[in-house]
Amino acid sequence: MSKALPLGELQASSDLLQNLIACAQSLAPVTIAVVHPCDAVSLSSALEAARLGLIKPVLVAPRGRIESVAATEKLDISGIPIIDVPHSHAAAARAAELAAQGEVQAIMKGSLHTDELMSAILPSSANLRTKRRVSHCFLMQVPTYPRPFIITDAAINIAPDLMAKADIVRNAIELAQVLGVVQPKVALLAAVETVSPHMQATLDAAVLCKMADRGQIEGGLLDGPLAFDNAISAEAANIKGIKSAVAGLADILVAPDLESANMLAKQLEYLGNASSAGIVLGAKVPVVLTSRADPQASRLASCAVAVILADHYRESPP
What we know:
Blueprint: H1 16-25, E1 30-35, H2 40-51, E2 55-61, H3 63-73, E3 82-84, H4 88-100, E4 106-109, H5 114-121, E5 135-141, E6 149-152, H6 162-178, E7 185-189, H7 200-213, E8 221-226, H8 228-232, H9 234-239, E9 252-254, H10 258-271, E10 275-281, E11 287-288, H11 296-315
Parallel strand pairs: 1-2, 1-4, 2-3, 4-11, 6-9, 7-8, 7-9
Antiparallel strand pairs: 5-6, 5-10
Helix pairs in contact: 1-11, 2-11, 4-5
């Protein structure tokens, strides 16, 4: 995609979040259903994304609660469409309907739980599923690694089996390619770098690599199992005698399960000074799935990723 962010060319000194926002600002704004933004940070972030020209928000929430938050925080919501619903469950359901009907091109989580939002999106009756399993990607940047990278899946699939992991990898490869990495390098993480019949993650990693060899997973260069140090350090891999085109150069880190991915992402964010943006792929529209603790900069960058993906989906529907 010619207008997408050249992610693979960014260096650690670049500001990933600002680059994402600048890229999205070069595209047409996306109409997005903001689901239950009934606290200060989610409502103000949606309004700021609109001010920056990233999105055209449609607020789906109890009107009284939206107006109360806006009044308390002195936020101007004049001219912003509000779809009045009785509660957060209804907000999630209505947002899914709007997306299925093509009235919005993306969905953004507000002040409700992730499972509450996703339970409205995932059922086949919502008509938002594609042939792939839905999964989440964290796009991250840390000062100690030479390029931005993706961690997956830290929010949707709790204990994915082999075929779920294959779709998790496919979704992450698609995101990296849309953002400008022609052939992303994918590290399949485990506790060790050797295949062991006693560790399912190592078996899955080996099979996923063979699936890529046979063309069942396309677009990326896969290697694994790789322990985390081998995935992000070519020196560590060399010391252990691992010959790998991915070690030290990984664009995508695929964790064995949600818990390990979630802990890795949050450790990097809180202890490693990481910047992050999050997005859900595998549905017919991108879903901005931020944590309630995420700062506004991460929320805006996540909106920017949704804009870039939605622009891509106009020409290549998922």
